[in-house]
Design goal:
The chain has helices at residues 2-28, 49-67, 75-105, and strands spanning 35-40, 112-117. With 118 residues, the chain is mainly α. A two-stranded antiparallel ribbon has the order 1-2. The longest helix has 31 residues, at 75-105. The chain is elongated.
Length: 118
């Protein structure tokens, strides 16, 4: 029972940390919209290299989905897209480290993580 409560608390903390960067960036940049995508890992063994590699692929897809495309003729769109990708990748990296640590500790109790960007 304690492990279940601890797992949920850790996941909530990780989710907040993952999305906080997106919200702080959007708060400082007026007119920007923060988007997020849930990435499922319920079917993965995050203690294995294969599971981590599959998660990396899903995260890359989520970053593409969150940040979308841009007009290569517009320098401001290119810059905004680059900022979004950087922010989403940092968010994902923090989440991944937390997930793997929890998986290795046997406290991984949820099945999705939120990846955010602007």
């Amino acid at each position: 029972m304690k492990n279940s409560i601890l797992s949920k608390s850790l996941f909530a903390a990780a989710a907040i940390a993952v999305t906080a960067t997106g919200f702080s960036a959007s708060a400082s940049a007026q007119g920007r919209i923060t988007k997020s995508v849930e990435v499922s890992y319920a079917d993965l063994d995050l203690t294995s290299a294969e599971g981590q590699s599959t998660l990396d692929g899903r995260i890359k897809g989520a970053v593409r989905q969150v940040c979308g495309s841009y007009d290569s003729k517009s320098l401001s769109e290119m810059a905004d897209h680059g900022d979004c990708v950087e922010e989403a990748n940092l968010s994902a990296k923090r989440a991944k480290v937390s997930l793997i640590a929890r998986a290795e500790a046997g406290t991984l109790g949820t099945s999705t993580v939120v990846i955010g960007g602007n």
